[in-house]
Structures
1.
Amino acid sequence: MEADKDRDIANQHIALQQPYPQDIHAVLRELTAALAEQRVKIAFLEKENQDHVTKLKELEKKEIETDKKVQQLQVKQVAFSASLLDQGHGDIGPFNTQITLIFKHVVTNIGNAYNPHTGIFTAPVRGVYHFDWSLYGYGNIGTGGVLFRNGENIFLAYEQQTSGGVSASNGASLLLEVGDQVSVRLWAGARIHDNQNHQTTFSGHLIFTM
């Protein structure tokens, strides 16, 4: 009898330690609900993170645009004016081929876009620029120079007479991209003159950016 009593007590302890089926289902429901809640939180965090990434890209884009505007503001003042000879007087030409004229006597070079060592103007910003060139010569040889953009013949200034002094001039407004180069080339067979009066000149300036 004592042994049977002990078995009953042992069986009761085992029964108390084993969960009932309904308890297992309750735990599973709680785990499922917790998992669903975590998934919702993860989805929210992912969306929030994506929003942050989108905002960051927008800020980076605005920063780039701001940098471009600042750069344009910094270089919007571009102007130069130079004459052919820095000192004394003399002639250039004639030659069988065109040559780039180097206007050495620089009186204005705001923005440093004109190079007095090469005679070439390089556009620092995209925009519309205006150029003027005036050439002086004499005698029975033509006086002429052509405006070039990246090797392209734009406009020619040319005059010729049998004797005395003669001048030729022209102007042009050009849409230039950053890095485009503009220069004046002596017309083949022509001759130009310059002296202390600085009669042979090349000038240009930025009208507006684009």
2.
Amino acid sequence: MLKIENLTLITREKLLENVNAEFELGSANGLVAPNGSGKTTLLRVLAGLTKAEAGKVYLEEDSKVLDLVSSRKKIFYYESSDWLDKHLSAWDYLQFVNDRWADSKVDVNEVVDYWELNEFVKLPIRKYSLGMKQKTVLAMYAVSNTDYWLMDEPMNGLDEANQTRFIEFMKEAKRRGTCIVFSSHQNDSLHSISDKVYYISDKKLCETTTDKQEDYK
């Protein structure tokens, strides 16, 4: 379980104050708020890339808190396709992620087939469209084979067919026991497969199930 305890986030202003949340294995959890409200900053804190002003984030298994090194091997976060090096290829990234993160190796070719990357997987990323780059990022999650996925606007740049493919991808990940925490827009179609949705409101994380989301519109 990924836990947040008494977390406070401050950038130029206070974004979150003394918030708590728990993200369980086998669940999908949405983060919803206007731009600038702290969604990306919170994901960075969960990934260990940014420090919070106060509070803590940690992984717990069998009532034991995991050490930092063990925790980082169980979490995968790739914020944006803008992070991709235009001189490398999707194949380079998939091989690297599978080697550095996966406890048990994933069939990279199978992932390439699923996301239909075959035609461009070994071309330099500078030749990719936004949709091609986004599918590369999503394929990286698959080959990471980690227990926890942190995803920032994961359907950005996907056409309708690939949005449908992504939703099935999320469902299958949940069935395997993956915990997914993602940021998204209001009324996103992903909320239909979410176990919980957290709205950032008045510097708090307001937790709701999908059948009560009308309360936060």
3.
Amino acid sequence: MKIWMLSTVVCLAAGARGMASREPVPPPPPVEAPEGYKWVLNQAYSDEFNGRKLDDEKWHNHYPGWKGRVPGLFVPESVQVDDGLLRIKIGLLDPPRGDDGEWWIACGAIQSKGQEAGYGYYETRMKASSLRTSSTFWLMNPRKDAEKAGKRTELDIQECIGDAQRWPDFKHQFRSNTHITFMNEEKVDGEYPVVKKGASYDIGSNVDEDFHTYGCWWVDAKTMHFYLDGEHVQTIEVSTEKDPSPFDRKMFINLVCEIYDWEVLPEKEQILDDSKNTTYYDYVRAYTLEKDDVK
């Protein structure tokens, strides 16, 4: 009898620990699903960052095939997961790297290992750094697919700079953009033709002051609706003049903090200031629409 009671207690305790360790199911996106459909979490591109390290089954801790933009080098050391947050911290490279020491700023990026993100809803909750470096959330189609399709597609959901100097609007706007590079056309001045369409919305405060949720419902090959803190604030309708289905390629997800060659470089004193040098991502969530069989 005592053995049975002890076994029961142990089993109940283990079950309680198991229930407590389960992560809560994220809420559905702030978008009503079309009639007959429901939103389903796409686990391959979702992460609550609740562990003690980056989930290397889902993410690269760098940007494969791209080192960054001089003088900002992507290094895995800039990427950390702690206290329920993904942190991308800008730092100094000591010693600088490269033949001429041209890489002296440590930047960071993560990229999804899955590369087949399609139509659906994508969202992150983010607080930008207070540096003149980017804090971003975006999607792009893989290089091999771009070469095969003859076009590169890029969907920038949020692209901001906490201490923007050259274009100060980057400090306080929800800035979204689309880029289509037509690689099957002749280059002009050494570059392939690019079609862009963007949208921006004033957040009402600087992007480094607090967390905000930035979301996008990628509806179809030409339509994207953007959501700030759960409210629809802007829409991009991509031109179909050159391509009737411009955004029909599967893509991968990027969270990147980098140097822009058109922005004033951050000062070393700022880079060393831990109250300014980190972009925080609370989560990344992706959802797809599936038929709802419930009558």
